[in-house]
DNA sequence: GGATAGATAGAAGTGATTTCTATCTATCAT
DNA sequence: ATGATAGATAGAAATCACTTCTATCTATCC
């Protein structure tokens, strides 16, 4: 993801293009890994000088709102964020490496037939689902994590 | 779920059978809905007299550990718990009514073929997934929520 | 180069969840 | 039944992720 397309996405959402927003997006796109707000802040501080924690939280939340980032769930319920490379507007999920936090986009693995089956059995109308796939990336597998 | 089988599950896990644990399990099995720890506490207090908040959190966490309860995720990230009626040890997910919080068990809707597809495309070894299906139950649909 | 709406830093606040510790009780062995 | 003991509980206090507040800045548009 180039700085230009990040800037374009920000403008499209009515958000100003600021050094902090660009730096946060760049960090997550270049690393490809999920990070907590605290970790993002620590990594950006050397380059940015100052970066408030509330600003870090707000920026990550806004970038997730645009679809540039995604929230990643962890067992300890600490929130983290990762870059999302999915085509805009296309339904998808995320595959997270439990070893290193690397995040990839995957297509939806919840077939319509399953959905209809659930509706028939339960009497519910199914309106959505949240899903996150977990695994070990090639690197982590080789390293034996 | 009878008090006897709850007690048996507790004993099997090396947990003592206490009035508070039985009451929490009973409340959630009888209501069929997801509740926050705070809500569980408020509802149990009239019958139990005193019930500490740390005790409430710990009991819900322990009961979820045995599989009697499941954690339910919400968009606001507030944690809640619901009874789980799945056969022990069988992989499954939960369907949550966004209107009233009613929770049902559903079979896994993530086919092995999809998993292999993901592994081939990404080079990851897929080790698990977290999923929660959302919808509107028959009652809530009729009520027009 | 202003004007202005939006962005940011830092301090303070919030609220869910956990820790701590003294007291209690379910369980098991007399 | 009674006593011993490991585990459970209440209440107070602490923790900590996250948010709010407000004065100061700055990206953007003229
Ligand atoms: Mn995404
Ligand atoms: Mn379950
Ligand atoms: Zn990895
Ligand atoms: Zn409902």
Strand content of chain A: 15-25%
Radius of gyration of chain A: 17 Å
Greatest interface and its residue counts? A-B, 34 and 34 residues
Number of helices of chain A: 6
Helix content of chain A: 40-55%
Class derived from helix and strand content of chain A: alpha+beta
Q: What is the average of the pLDDT values of chain A?
A: 94
How would you name the oligomeric state of the polypeptide chains in this document?
homodimer
Heterogens: manganese (II) ion, zinc ion
User: What is the CATH third-level topology name of chain A?
Assistant: Arc Repressor Mutant, subunit A
Distance between the termini of chain A: 29 Å
Order of helices and strands of chain A: HHHHEEEEHEH
Basic shape of chain A: globular
CATH class group of chain A = Mainly Alpha
Q: CATH H-level name of chain A... which superfamily?
A: Winged helix-like DNA-binding domain superfamily/Winged helix DNA-binding domain
Major sheet characteristics of chain A: 3 strands, mixed
Please give the CATH architecture of chain A.
Orthogonal Bundle
What does this structure look like?
Two copies of one chain form a homodimer. By secondary structure, chain A is α+β, with helices and mostly antiparallel strands. Chain A is built from six helices and five strands; from the N terminus they run H-H-H-H-E-E-E-E-H-E-H. In chain A, strands 4-3-5 form a three-stranded mixed sheet. In chain A, strands 1-2 form a two-stranded antiparallel sheet. In chain A, helix 2 packs across helix 3. The radius of gyration of chain A is 17 Å and the shape is globular. The two termini of chain A are 29 Å apart. Strand 5 of chain A pairs antiparallel with strand 5 (125-136) of chain B. Residues 70, 84, 86, 92, 94 of chain B line the site of one manganese (II) ion. One zinc ion binds next to helix 6 of chain B. Chain A binds a DNA duplex (30 and 30 nucleotides) through residues 14-18, 20-21, 36-38, 50-55, 57-59, 77-79.
């Amino acid at each position: 993801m180039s700085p230009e397309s990040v800037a374009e996405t920000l403008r499209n959402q009515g958000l100003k293009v600021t050094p902090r927003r660009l730096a946060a997006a760049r960090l997550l796109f270049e690393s490809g890994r999920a990070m907590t707000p605290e970790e993002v802040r620590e990594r950006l501080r050397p380059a940015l000088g100052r970066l408030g924690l509330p600003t870090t939280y707000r920026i990550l939340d806004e970038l997730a709102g645009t679809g540039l980032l995604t929230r990643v769930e962890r067992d300890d319920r600490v929130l983290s964020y990762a870059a999302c490379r999915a085509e805009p507007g296309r339904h998808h999920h995320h595959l997270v490496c439990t070893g290193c936090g690397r995040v990839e986009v995957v297509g939806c693995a919840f077939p319509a037939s399953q959905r209809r089956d659930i509706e028939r059995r339960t009497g519910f109308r199914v309106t959505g689902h949240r899903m996150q796939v977990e695994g070990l990336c090639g690197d982590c597998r080789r390293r034996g994590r």
